[in-house]
Amino acid sequence: MSEIPDEMMKHVDEMTLLLYVERQLDRARGLEVSAHTQECDACRTLLRALERESRLLTRAMLEEDEPLPSRLAQFQERARKSMQWIWGLVFGLAATGVYELYTGYIQPWQTQLEAAGFGGSNLLGLLIFQGAVWKGWQSMMTLLEVLAMLTLAGLGAMFFRRRIRRGSALALVFAGFCTMLALPTGASATEHRGGQSPTVNKEETIKGDIYLTGERVRVEGTVEGDVVAAGKDIDIDGHVTGDVISAGRYLRIRGTVDGNIRSTGNTAVISGTLGKNITWFGDAVTVDATGKVGGSITMFGGTLAMDGHLGRDILFFGDEVNVNGDVGGGLRQKGHALIIGSSARVDGPIHFEGDHPATVSTGAKLASPVEFKQMEKKPEYREAGYYMWRVIWTAAFVLFGMVLFLLAPSFARETIGAAELYGAPIGLGILVFFGVPLAAIIACFTVVGIPLAILVGGFWILMLCCAEIVVGAVVGNLILGKPTDTWGMIGRMALGFVIVRIVYTPLAQVHVLGMVAALVIWMWGMGAISLALYRRVQPVIAPNMPSAPYAPPMPPNTTVGGALPA
């Protein structure tokens, strides 16, 4: 020990003991401290306390999840219990919304469609999967069901990721891929014809489906399958054993179609024979006196003239229905006018909701009188159901945004950051909002591009649904500041979304302002999502990467071996 007074040499100071614990003393000084602590109880006690504190500090620095203090742990437990009530409330609102949506819209529509002759199957299968757009949907049902099950299994694996081993998760993923690859693919025989006037000649017989695109499409022969046509004028003079799916200005059926007609266009004239139903989105449909329809007519459009024979019911949403022929079922209409001529015969009930009562001739043969209901036109904001649906949809969107933020928190944070740039996302959103649907429509003109167009269209709709959530998160950040965790981001999103809805509701009563506000929100949010995706896929250059050393230019007449002689 050094030469110091006796009262100071009895103990070693705390700093020296701390350096001893950290092995920072030289060997001679360390031996002195070790010998002193073996004889001095006070210094030995202080040394043990310093060693224990050093170990605790080292352990705390190495641990990833440091235990919370008891007060914070109790607060976290109370918050978790409160969140159970919040989750229950949100899911209750979502369940109420689903129930109201089904009982208020889907069930009445399904009842009306069954009354119009679409019974025997579910609504989704009738409208979409039974040849409405693409024959391949029927063979894709099993694949879609398996994909849905795999999606649920993946979500379950993510939820229980801490309780299962990594090998089990990989086995689940590989099993899903093997199941999907093992699914049989449906065989189909299709043919495509294009040009100015694609035609199926009278002597031809097409085995399978055929796609026809051109200015004037003509089918004079036999098609043992479906006809998918797009053009200015479409004439079916031959025999089609399947369905006719078309989009064009005029559709004329003078031949025989054993299946359905599912079309959109300006005018359709039925002079031949149709075995099943008509589904039409357009201006006018006329069934001539020589025309026969074995099933029903479901129409969304302008006018329907029924002069021929109809085997089942009429379901109409449009302007006017004029009946002068035979209707084997009932008639349900919501529109402007209903005219029943003297030669008409309707075997089922007639329900008409319009501006004024139906005009019925005295010679008409009706199974029952016309049930008329005056169409009411009152502002929606005066009804209690209007505000109830607003609350339900707001809660549903908040729940949807919460799920997205929990599934992809980093991407959600990047999207909100991109939306806070304002100018760039709005400009990019204008391009995405108008450009993507146009590209999808162009892709539909080729058979190969139809699945791609459906995929792109679905993703575009998903972005449209997420746009208001992104804008709400930006508004929440402006009010409460930027969050530090995922739940803070969710809370700001919910607050901002509610504020956006409150501001937008009165603007929606003025159609021009409501449309402008909706377009701004959609373009802003979709542009932010697109910008975040672009930043994800573009290559990132490290900001601190050292540049190459500067090399001065070589003098003229210089080669690898040195300068050339002059």
What would your notes on this structure say?
With 566 residues, the protein is an alpha/beta fold. The protein has helices at 6-9, 14-21, 27-39, 41-62, 70-115, 123-129, 136-159, 166-182, 384-407, 409-419, 423-443, 449-480, 486-509, 511-537; strands at 190-193, 199-200, 205-207, 209-219, 222-224, 227-236, 239-240, 244-253, 256-257, 261-270, 273-274, 278-287, 292-293, 297-306, 309-310, 314-323, 326-327, 331-334, 337-340, 345-346, 350-354, 359-360, 365-366, 370-374, 558-559, 562-563. The strands form three sheets. Strands 1, 2, 4, 6, 8, 10, 12, 14, 16, 18, 19, 21, 22 and 24 form a 14-stranded parallel β-sheet that branches. Helix 2 (14-21) crosses helix 4 (41-62) and helix 10 packs across helix 14 (511-537). It starts with 5 loop residues before the first helix and ends with a strand. The relative contact order is 0.05.
Distance between the termini: 80 Å
The biggest beta sheet, please? 14 strands, parallel
User: Could you tell me the number of beta strands?
Assistant: 26
Shape: elongated
Average pLDDT level: 76
The helix content is 40-55%
Class inferred from helices and paired strands:
alpha/beta
Strand content: 15-25%
Question: How many helices does DSSP assign?
Answer: 14
Radius of gyration (CA) equals 37 Å
User: Spans with pLDDT under 50 lasting ≥5 residues?
Assistant: 1-8, 116-145, 162-175, 177-188, 540-551, 556-566
